[in-house]
User: Fold this.
Amino acid sequence: MHALSPSPYKDVDQAFALAKERYAGLGVDVDRAIGRLAKVPISLHCWQGDDVGGFEDSGEDIGGGLAVTGNYPGRARTPDELRADLDLALSLIPGTHRLNLHASYAETGGRPVERDALEPAHFRRWIEWAKAKGMGMDFNPTYFAHPKAADGFTLAHPDDGIRKFWIDHGIACRRIGAAIGQALGSPCVTNVWIPDGMKDTPIDRKAPRQRLAAALDAMFAEPLDRRHNLDAVEGKLFGLGSESYVVGSHEFYLGYAVSRKKLVCLDAGHYHPTESLSDKISSVLTYLDEILLHVSRGVRWDSDHVVTLTDELESIAQELVRGDYLGRVHIGLDFFDASINRIAAWVVGTRCMLKALLMAMLEPTAELRRLEAEGNYTARLAMLEELKTLPFGAVWDHYCQVKDVPVGPAWLGKVKSYEAEVLSRRG
Ligand SMILES: C[C@H](O)[C@H](O)[C@@H](O)C(=O)CO
Ligand SMILES: [Mn+2]
Assistant:
């Protein structure tokens, strides 16, 4: 037990010792699994903390076919509040992680700065904050909540001037991404998602896609050091108000990423409900060196519910571990829920992602592979079901304890105290 860990669970060590024996009986080295998990950063998205509001104070609606529901008190209203909330969330999640920031979270000293004129200096305080915590950062141009995106088109806009504005925003953001990556000594994944699409059946599906490809080429023209910045492109099946046609579909971006050597971003909420992100990982990694994940949870029309330990989350983690893909996959989260405590949402989602990875790392994969290769599908199925009730929780509790974060639901008490002392005082 970690000397500094005040845990209400006196039996964590004992349970861990028994669990370790159980896993060892299956040939699984629990300590190795824990060591592997500790090396996996999850990129926490800033936008869960303030309902995707950002700090531009432009008065614009979120737009872009995105919707945040709920009015739980305590939304972060300033960058300092958001950083304080993230500080608390990160203190309740085992391991060292990353921050995923949107361009609309710039700090411009109260002076409005247009998005095509943003510079690394506007993110200096975020970079300093991450550096002090030994964290890396990822970045996103913001193609919504802006008058020039009000008609639902940005990089595929038919108007040359508007398209140019958004290309220049992308150029500015790639430079900011590179500055972040250089400052923090870890490549920044700069992910492009645009809302462009149509509510009803378009006549011309072709021209907007041709404009988007050309706009992306112009935006990506400047070569940047891959040690500092990695470009990613994120597709989507539909959005609110773009139900019939999305210019940047999955197929569009997969083709773009393969032909231009970019990362594709797979968002778990962006496919037809009968499709699963987990099945796409090994397909796209056959052709791409690296990808970005936006781990989310789609529920009916909404693509962005808080991540929980679902079968699909377990499958995603299994694919990453079984395929030995962790060095090629950047794991980010993407959800926004304003109906519950926003810090708790980060903690639940990130802890679930880590739990799923740990479960996958505790799998006797070599043995399961052997059964499959022998065609022994009966034993494969039986083993997969038996593995589900192994004492995984005891290993997770031990991991939280050695990483000096609360074991079990004890973290919720810290969030509730912060809610009473800090969040409830926000207007
Ligand atoms: C706020 C993000 O950029 C956004 O969620 C995007 O990644 C997305 O998934 C849009 O549906
Ligand atoms: Mn996403």
Notes: Residues 1-5 have pLDDT under 50 and may be disordered. Residues 190 and 231 are 5 Å apart (CA to CA).
